[in-house]
Amino acid sequence: MRKILVLRGGALGDFIVTLPTLALLRRRWPEARIELVGNARAAELARARGLIDAVHSQHEARWSALFWGAPLTEPMATWLTSFDLVLNYWPDPDADLPRHFPRRTDQVFLTWPAMPTLAPAAAHYAAALRAFDLGDAAPWFPLQPLASDAAVARISPIGVALHPGSGSARKNWPLERWREVTVALPGPITVILGEAELETRGPALTALLTDPRVVPAINLRLETLVAQLARCALFLGHDSGISHLAAATGIPCLLLFGPTDPSLWAPPASTVRVLRRGPEMAAIAVEDVRAELQSLRPSV
User: Fold this and answer.
1) Closest by alpha carbon to 245, among 73, 15, 91?
2) Rounded distance between C-alpha atoms, residue 244 and residue 252, angstroms
């Protein structure tokens, strides 16, 4: 294979569970040019570590031609034809993509279910490559800080990191319980937030952020966040992309799960512990979280 194109949609966590697959491709074809269409912000994590060579945003209008029947422009058709392998994880319920691929007789087109059916999720995405007999993928891909970001992170405090958000309100533990847990934690406490959380939960977050021991980490670059997380003693979060990011740095993580299946979506790292009390997040008691945190890190 000289050129490989990977189509992968979704948010940060969806991309991180695909990293072991990208690592398999790079291990088998170290000289190939690997390009990815997907979450451009998340995919930079892979590009910076040599797993892929180029990133294209999934939000570019040009991809709609693959689904809506519009004719491909000549440059786009030529570009797509240049790939030896096209690996698709995009949802394609109407089988639109097979109308465009393969584009030449020796082009390999593989399409795989976008939603995992094999646990953990990383194993599901790696299973798309079984036909190539590439060996087993690692269950997760470690993310070490880049040298430049590690230098910046050294000026940041070391402590506990929290991420009280996720991509769905149903996956979020009640904020008042986060505040109860935070009171008992040693400082400094890094609270990771994005714009969406500030917009939807801003007033409720005020009490948490006004704690003098709290260091807000708002809308940080992912590489900066990797470097800061790698220096933390412990991470507490939900089923979220940030939790996958924290687990990839190798720090101890306690993840609170409710409506989603941890066998699929919890990072399968030995440093990760999952706490679940059924499908409702409110069923998780503050005392349960405190006990698990104490077990993970007796000093907290």
Assistant:
1) 15
2) 12
Residue pLDDT, tens place only, 113-165: 999 999 999 999 999 999 898 888 888 899 999 877 656 555 555 789 999 98
Which H/E stretch holds residue 287?
Answer: helix 286-296
Q: Which residues contact 81 (CB under 8 A, 6 or more apart)?
A: 103, 104, 107
Residues in the chain: 300
SS3 214: strand
Domain containing 11: what range?
3-132
Q: How many CA atoms lie within 13 A of 115 on its CB side?
A: 4
| Domain CATH number, residue 47 | 3.40.50.2000
Q: How many angstroms separate the Cα of 94 from the Cα of each of 67, 115, 203, 208, 297?
A: 9, 16, 43, 46, 49
- Structural domain total, the chain: 2
pLDDT at residue 123, rounded to an integer: 95
**pTM (2 decimals)?**
0.92
The helix (run of H) or strand (run of E) holding residue 34 is strand 33-38
**Calpha distance 282→258 (Å, rounded):** 9
